[in-house]
C-alpha cells in the first residue's frame, strides 16, 4: 500500500474528520468568548473599578533610554487572559452540565420493549407447546 493511499485512508476516517470539525468549532467558539469578554464583561468591570482596562495595567521596570525600549511588566494582560480562561471554563462547564442532564433524562425515560416479530411469536408458541408436551406423564 502506497503512502498516498495510507494517508487517504487515515484522513477520511471518521475520528479525524470529527476532530477537524471540533477544532474549527472550538476556534469559532474562542472568538465568541473573546468578544463576550472584551465587549460585554470587561466594560462594566472597568467601570466598577474606575474605568481601568485590565490589559493596560502594567509596571515599568526600566524606563526607555535612547533606542532601548522600556522594560514593562504587563500584568494586566495576564489578568485579562486568566479572566478569559475562567469565563471559557465556566461556559464549557455549564454546557457539559446541560448535556449530562439531558442524557440522564433520556436514560430515566422508560423504553417499551420491542414488539417481537411474527417469527419470534411463532417460535415462542412452539417452545411453549414443547414444554407442555414434555411436562405431560
Automatic annotation (TrEMBL):
Alphabetized, the UniProt keywords read: Cell inner membrane, Cell membrane, Ion channel, Ion transport, Membrane, Transmembrane, Transmembrane helix, Transport
Asked if the keyword Membrane belongs to this entry, the reply reads yes
Cross-referenced Gene3D superfamilies: Large-conductance mechanosensitive channel, MscL, domain 1
Q: Which residue ranges traverse the bilayer?
A: 78-96
**Any keyword Transmembrane?**
yes
UniProt topology in membrane = Multi-pass membrane protein
SUPFAM superfamilies (UniProt xref): Gated mechanosensitive channel
Query: Pfam families in the record, alphabetically?
Result: MscL (PF01741)
Spell out the InterPro entries in the cross-references: Mechanosensitive_channel_CS, MS_channel, MSC/AndL, MscL_channel
Q: Which GO terms describe its molecular function?
A: mechanosensitive monoatomic ion channel activity
Q: Where in the cell is it found?
A: Cell inner membrane; Cell membrane
Annotated GO CC locations:
plasma membrane
What family is this protein classified in? Answer: Belongs to the MscL family.
Q: List the HAMAP family hit by this protein, alphabetically.
A: MscL (MF_00115)
Q: Cite the record's note on assembly.
A: Homopentamer.
What role is this protein assigned? Channel that opens in response to stretch forces in the membrane lipid bilayer. May participate in the regulation of osmotic pressure changes within the cell.
Please name the NCBIfam families in this protein's record: mscL (TIGR00220), PRK00567.1-4 (NF001843)
Protein name from the UniProt record: Large-conductance mechanosensitive channel
Organism name: Pseudomonas khorasanensis
Amino acid at each position: 500500500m502506497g503512502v498516498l493511499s495510507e494517508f487517504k485512508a487515515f484522513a477520511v476516517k471518521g475520528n479525524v474528520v470529527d476532530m477537524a470539525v471540533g477544532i474549527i468549532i472550538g476556534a469559532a467558539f474562542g472568538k465568541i468568548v473573546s468578544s463576550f469578554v472584551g465587549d460585554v464583561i470587561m466594560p462594566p468591570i472597568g467601570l466598577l473599578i474606575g474605568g481601568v482596562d485590565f490589559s493596560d495595567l502594567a509596571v515599568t521596570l526600566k524606563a526607555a533610554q535612547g533606542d532601548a525600549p522600556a522594560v514593562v511588566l504587563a500584568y494586566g494582560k495576564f489578568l485579562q487572559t486568566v479572566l478569559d480562561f475562567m469565563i471559557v471554563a465556566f461556559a464549557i462547564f455549564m454546557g457539559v452540565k446541560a448535556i449530562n442532564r439531558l442524557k440522564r433524562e433520556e436514560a430515566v425515560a422508560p423504553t417499551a420493549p420491542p414488539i417481537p416479530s411474527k417469527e419470534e411469536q411463532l417460535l415462542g408458541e412452539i417452545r411453549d407447546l414443547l414444554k407442555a408436551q414434555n411436562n405431560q406423564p
